[in-house]
Batch of 2 targets.
Target 1
Amino acid sequence: MFIDTDIFARIVAGEIPCDKVFETARILAFRDIAPKAKTHIIIIPKENLVTAKEVTANNLELFGELFLVAKEIAEKENLKGYKLHMNVDEEGGQVVPHVHLHLLSRDFKSPL
Ligand code: AMP
């Protein structure tokens, strides 16, 4: 079930702290508060998009940048291999109503 506030928008606004690992003009990445792997990083667009269902021909570049940032973080953190995971909508297991890509590597604990 979606939580009722977009906590990731509040992180972007600086109202909630985060353990930031990477930032561009349009993207923010921070460590997951309840990691499901040794490395578990959340990568988000700063724009308030709720789910990946909002991808269109007009914002393809923004969605693509999530993957570019994931690659750059993986290089920075010396990750040899990793999982990229995105829950889409409540029925897809998404809890936070803000588009986010999970980057996970090593010692995976449980499915997301
Ligand atoms: P999802 O189920 O795909 O919506 O994933 C939401 C993720 O956000 C979960 O892995 C949570 O542990 C993580 N999360 C929730 N609140 C915070 C927070 N304040 N800072 C960092 N990660 C968070």
Target 2
Amino acid sequence: MDYAPRPQDKFTFGLWTVGNVGRDPFGEPVRKPKTPVELVHLLAECGAWGVNFHDNDLVPIDATSAERTQIVRDFKNALSTTGLVVPMATTNLFTDPAFRDGAFTSNDAAVRAYAVQKTMRAIDLGVECGAEVYVFWGGREGTESDATKNPAESIKRFREAINFLASYSKSQGYKLRFALEPKPNEPRGDIFLATVGHALAFITTLDDPDMVGVNPEVAHETMAGLNFLHGVAQAWEMNKLFHIDLNDQVIGRYDQDFRFGSSNIKGAFHLVKFLEDVGYNGSKHFDAHAFRTDNDEGVKAFAKGCMRTYLILKEKAARWNADKNIQALVQQVNSIAPGLPAWQGGFSPDKAKLLSNHSFDRAAIGSKGQPYEQLDQLTMEVIMGVR
Ligand code: DIG
Ligand code: MN
Ligand code: MN
């Protein structure tokens, strides 16, 4: 296997990922900025299928309409030349000082209104370029002090904006699906809708919950100390995994947005195995960037490394599924003892009676150990390449 990316892998990158110039809170840029057209060609050279953008990654916030037209024309030409597609778009509601206290949840009603207007225009731009998923990452929606906002009121403001924008999208005849991207903190001290769980609960309160799902990111759930796969699996099980941001992260650090699989290879393996086992067919978006230490060749190595690691882990997942010893253990741990009362598949008074009258040998149940050390060791040996 050559681990070369193919269109059917649906690997995508944001313009801001391979366009990251290496600025950080303690240092100036180290790489020269590239135009969207240059970035499209770079991604095509690396083997990506698609490219995503925030509105202002493509069209500067103060561009004239003539400039916008030219920029979009050049971008679309690059897309048709390279064959790259735009599966997702999103809005930058975090860079401009106007959003320093949030966008949809700002205490300033003018900012809230401007944020909705800006998002309407960004949705138009995204659809114009072919986007089918629209991501909302509320990077500035939060607080440093809880004296400043009533968190319940803030959730109401967030809901009002999402409901309005969902109706706007439908009124325009767009077939967009919205995907909320949670993050616990950074750049705000605390960010609303902090995890996948918060977002899934919030979605149930919207006017059109079916139109809205989640875009979980590895680094963000990891920053919250959570098991990323468990959040993804719950979203999938609820048919809410509309998009996914793949990268990597060391727990307890700032949002590192590392190359996929470069920190927690075991977590990456189980994530790839899950996505492949369930047949996830959405974009595999690498929301990450190259180390600040690297120049342009490093950016390409970063992008190729994300995709190559995914494909290597995909092959290891297939090996795990085909491994006889592993599958025998999986069979064993999921075996069902004979003679149990049949209570599952929906309640009935007879089932309740049967279950309440059944006598369990608690000591025997408690004495049963599981072969998880073996199963985990064999899994590690697949990951380490000796099985
Ligand atoms: C950061 O993790 C966020 C923003 O880059 C963007 O809004 C979103 C899209 O993947 N991820
Ligand atoms: Mn991130
Ligand atoms: Mn992200």
